[in-house]
Amino acid sequence: RAKNAIHVGAVTHTGVLTEFSSLGPQDDGRMFPSICAKGYNVWSTGPGNDYMYMNGTSQTCPTVTGTAALLSERYAQLHQGQEIPSDLLRAILANTATDAGRPGPDFQYGFGIMNGEKAAIALENQYHAQDAVAKGENKQLTIQIPAGCQELRVMLVWNDPPSVKADEWGDRTLVNDLDLSLTVGSTNYLPWVCDPTKGNLLKNAVRNSDHLNNIEQITLTAHELQGAR
Description:
Layout: E1 8-11, E2 35-38, E3 42-46, E4 50-54, H1 57-78, H2 86-95, H3 116-124, E5 151-157, E6 182-184, E7 187-189, E8 192-193, E9 206-207, E10 215-221, H4 222-225
Parallel strand pairs: 1-2
Antiparallel strand pairs: 3-4, 5-10, 6-7, 8-9
């Protein structure tokens, strides 16, 4: 039931979800997995000091971990040796993932298939900001949208503290409920939210307030961005 981890699903080399990859949601309705990466027919180490092709999320997790390590190293190079905050690392990996499955986040692919190159570019261009907010406080951040922009992704991620009691199955795990919204022109947009109730798991995400997850994403198309000009 970890809230501040990267949960990883497995896809083939063509981006198709494998039959052994676990699906969401988590028991309290939270998004699962976070992202996906290749976990089928992976050239890996084997018994007897040998190499072999292997399948499993146990192959996917090292791929994501290795990419995360490289991103951490790049962040340190750009910030005088500082360690990348874990919530920023999760945000960079999730928000730059290549969308897969149904449009937006879903309970099969999460926020998409990991794209290490785009994640590194986001770090190098400093497409991120860090701040703190007090209870009941509102914070605003203005984003300059480049001319000709074809897509915008905005994500809010925070490390949520542990619950003060032992959680029972289905109990809401979230402690600090932050809410992301984006105003473009005169239009206000809310995050993409998936319906975790029985019979609705395969429906497309809809824009709504999110009171379950400590990772929220808003995306805008080129058409929607026209309101910013």
